[in-house]
Amino acid sequence: MTEPFIGEIQLFGFNFAPQGWGSCNGATLPIRQNTALFSLLGTQYGGNGTTTFQLPNFANRAGCNQGQGAGLTRRNIGETFGNESITLTQGEMPAHAHSLTLYNQSESSKRAASPGTGNSLSVPNSSSPFLPNVQPNTQFAQNVIGVAGGSQPHENRQPYLAINFSIALAGVFPAFG
């Protein structure tokens, strides 16, 4: 392998950082022992800037380019953003309907006591599986279909593959162009 640039980030398919590399896990490092790397990273990823600085943290994160793409907000190097999970509000849900068609089987020989393809469960001899003596085409009560999810968040991360992000702690100091 060629000698890396100090601060270069590489992906490795094994679960440790090779010699001369550090895991991109937000670790706090002393400036005195890593002056070259600190001169490149500064406190972009954290630290107090006088005795410590932090490495980038790729734990539960995906990388993206700095700057601003068309129609996107500006992203600064070292900035973290996004959510691992999110709770949708009613205003964020697309408009849609949940239609339900019910058929009352008047022939008792065709009724079944358990679910089956093309069958539904209903109270015997009722005009509705929900309420007795209701006329066809009657509106459901407002609370028959309601909010689902219990205001709990759902998974919001993109598909991922666990890989080890590592940063070169030693190597060639990159020249500024």
Keywords:
7 strands; 12% strand; three-stranded antiparallel β-sheet; mainly beta; 177 residues
Protein described:
This protein is mostly beta strands. A three-stranded antiparallel beta sheet has the order 1-7-2, with no helix packed on it. A two-stranded antiparallel ribbon has the order 3-4. It has a two-stranded antiparallel ribbon with strand order 5-6. The mean pLDDT is 83.
The rounded Rg comes to: 30 Å
Q: What portion of residues is helical?
A: under 10%
N-to-C order of helices and strands: EEEHEEEE
Biggest sheet descriptor? 3 strands, antiparallel
Find the structural class using helix and strand composition: mainly beta
Give the mean pLDDT: 83
Strand order of the largest sheet: 1-7-2
Strand content: 5-15%
Tally of contiguous helical segments: 1
Morphology:
elongated
Total strand segments:
7
Q: Kindly, what is the distance between the CA atoms of the first and last residues, rounded to a whole number of angstroms?
A: 24 Å
Low-confidence stretches: none
List the helices and strands and how they pair.
Blueprint: E1 9-12, E2 21-23, E3 28-30, H1 35-41, E4 52-54, E5 85-86, E6 154-155, E7 164-168
Antiparallel strand pairs: 1-7, 2-7, 3-4, 5-6
Short description:
By secondary structure, this protein is mainly beta.
